[in-house]
Every structure is written in structure tokens, then in C-alpha cells.
Amino acid sequence: MTIVKAYAAQAADKPLAPYSFDRREPGADDVEVKILYCGVCHSDIHTARNEWGGTVYPAVPGHEIVGKVTRVGANVSKFKVGDTVGVGCFVDSCMHCSNCNNNLEQYCETGHTQTYNSLSQDKQSITLGGYSSHIVVTQHFVLSISDKLPLEKVAPLLCAGITTYSPLRHWGIKAGDKIGVVGLGGLGHMAVKLAASMGAEVTMLSRSKSKEKDAARLGAQHFKLTTDKDTMAELANSFNFILDTVSAAHDYNEYLGLLKSDGIMIIVGAPSEPTPVSAFPFILGRRSLVGSLVGGIKETQEMLDYCAEHNITSDVEVININQINEAYERTLAGDVHYRFVIDMATL
Ligand code: NAP
Ligand code: ZN
To answer: What is the 283 CA–ligand 2 centroid distance (Å)?
Structure first.
């Protein structure tokens, strides 16, 4: 066992505070990583505050991890000490169901093990995430990171990047497609960058007029204010795809009508409250509403390599760990440009 320093939520209504706990010693297939940077995802807030239910306290969030390998087990061939690596949203899965066999570990039929607040595959413990000095992960779930790009800007690719890249690839977004991205936060800004890099015509759909200039800089050709009823009416039948990254409950029906016939609305944002949807937007335009969860390990590596090749990183504000509670409040207020990343040297 190695004692690691961390920040944890002790209860849903308590701020995060310093904490320490034991990490397992690296086993034969494990990689131990000293964490340099960890991004702050809205999922961390949902979990720390038990908004989705099921949070086990103390909870250590963090699943946008970049660091250096400090130790490897005897069977580890993929990595050596000193390598720059990443760990994303999950750290284990059964490795033999049909989804795991098809590089879709995130949809493991018996349940994947997420990086935090998740049952380990041996059902013995609950995982603790990246707001910590070190993490130990089996080699299959560790990603190679290019040293070409600034690491603090790479960390958010491990969740915000892959969560938006995977559906863009799965549904084959290509040059000429018209896509609306809803919500300009961590996921939204990566969706704009990635969809634009694939040649799509991107419209930012935001409730925050103040983000208009940034949306253009990130690669959106158009900016539309979703709080304006006339604008929303004019946008009817406009898009082949809508990618919805919004973290709070909102009316999906308002967006479904913005799709062309056969258009697809992809939900990646995960509000805790359900939203009713009407049958009519589906029937009238043969439209679809679908969802997507992060991406498999193979695809995450592909995304990291794609971003290194195309010079795509996240726009970040680097914070000290003791600013984490303030960062949560600012994220909830929509005041994030466009990802907080913790410098773990400040732990
Ligand atoms: P974030 O940085 O807080 O961004 C969310 C954005 O949604 C905000 O910037 C805001 O954009 C918009 N928004 C927030 N509250 C709203 C409201 N009440 N009504 C309308 N718009 C609102 O969050 P994030 O880290 O990108 O995460 C977004 C969501 O995705 C979270 O629910 C998170 O848990 C989920 N998530 C899902 C996956 C997955 O695999 N599917 C992976 C990671 C995260 P505007 O100001 O532009 O409107
Ligand atoms: Zn995340």
C-alpha cells in the first residue's frame, strides 16, 4: 500500500477538503502514475454533490488525468518509467463480453469500473479518482500522451475530448454536415473544435451571449442564443446533427424540431432530472434522439493521436487544488473558459 494525498468530498453538502488514503501497490499488469494535471469535469460536481445518487463518501473525483509513469508491474510492456500517460473516465472492465471484445469497454455488459465512485471488478472497493497525487491502473486502460502539446491543455481531452469525438465519429460527421452544439462549457468547446476540424458547419447554441466571440474563435461559424424564441423558431429544420452537452435539465423538445428530417440529436450532457419528450418531432421528421458515453480505449488513443496531429487542445484555466470549491461554483454559474485544470503540484 502507498499512502497518497488527495482532495475529497466528505458529504454532498460539504466542500472538498484535504484527505489521504491507501492506493494498492502496482500488480504485475499495473502502471503507477504520478499525476501532474487533472481536469475538472461537471461529472465531478454531479458526483461530489450526489446529484445522480449513489455517491460513496469520502469521494475523490477526477477523470481527466495526465501524469508520468513512476512504477510498472512485471507484465507491463506498453509503458516504462518516465513515460507521459493519461487516464480517462474508466480504469477497468470485464475484458471478455462482446462490447469489451469490440473495443467498447465503456459499454461493458457487466459494468465497467469508472475512475471514481465505482465498484472495482473484484467488487471489493470503490474507486478514488484523480484529485490525488498518484493512481494505479491496469496497463490496458492507460493511454499514451504525446509530449508535443502542453500537458495541462491535454488533460481535458481524456473526458471532454473523447466524449465529443466518439459520437462525431460514430455518426460519421463530415464536411458539409450542419451540426448544432448545445452548451458552451468543457464538453461544448471541445465539440466545436473537433466538429470544425472534421469540416462540419458548426452552430453554437448557447444561453450566454457573452460567449459569442469565443464560439467563433473556437471554430463555430454561427452563434444562436437559445433564450431567444424568434431565433429558435427561425432555426427549425436546420441541422443534420445536434450534440447536446448541457449539464442541467432542459427541454429536449425545443431542440428536436431544429433537426432536418432524419436528423440525429445526440445527448452527452447528463442532467440528474428526467425530461419528457413528445412523440411528434420523431414522427413528423423521422428524427432520432440518441446518447453516447465517453469512448473506448482504442478510440481514446485514436482521439489523442488525432489531437496531437491537428494541434487540438482544450482552453484551460489552471488552478491550485485549494481553489477547487471556487472552481465548482464558477462552473455551476457557467463562468468557465472552458475547463478548469488542477496543477497537482499544489496538492
Ligand atoms: P460545463 O463545463 O458546466 O458545461 C455545461 C454547459 O451547459 C454550460 O457551460 C452552459 O453553456 C450549459 N448550461 C448549464 N446549465 C444550463 C441550463 N440550466 N440551461 C441551459 N444550459 C445550461 O459541463 P461539462 O463538464 O461540459 O459537462 C456537461 C455535461 O456532460 C455534464 O452533465 C456531465 O456530467 C456530462 N458528461 C457526460 C459524459 C458522457 O460520457 N456522456 C462525459 C462527461 C461529462 P451555455 O452557457 O453556453 O449555455
Ligand atoms: Zn468527465
So the answer is: 33
| Residue of the CA atom closest to atom 39 of ligand 1 | 293
User: Mean of the pLDDT values across residues 275-294?
Assistant: 97
Average pLDDT over residues 119-127: 97
Band (132; pLDDT cuts 50, 70, 90): very high
Answer whether 277's CB lies under 8 Å from 300's CB.
no
Instruction: Give the pLDDT confidence score for residue 1 in this predicted structure.
Output: 78
Dist CA 155 CA 339 (whole Å) = 10
For a mutational test of ligand 1's pocket, the pick from 190, 211, 246, 294, i.e. the residue with the most ligand atoms closer than 8 A to its C-beta, is: 246
pLDDT at 266: 98
> Which residues, 6 or more positions from 122, have their beta carbon under 8 angstroms from its beta carbon?
none
In which band, very low, low, confident or very high, does the pLDDT at 58 lie, cut at 50, 70 and 90?
very high
Class for domain 161-291, per CATH? alpha beta
Q: Which residues line ligand 1 (CB under 6 A)?
A: 41-43, 46, 159, 163, 183-188, 206-208, 211, 245-248, 250, 268-270, 292-294, 331, 334, 336
Secondary structure of the chain: what % helix, strand, coil (to 5)? 30, 30, 40
Each domain of the chain, given as residue ranges in start order, spans 2-159+295-346, 161-291
CATH 3.90.180.10 for domain 2-159+295-346, yes or no, is yes
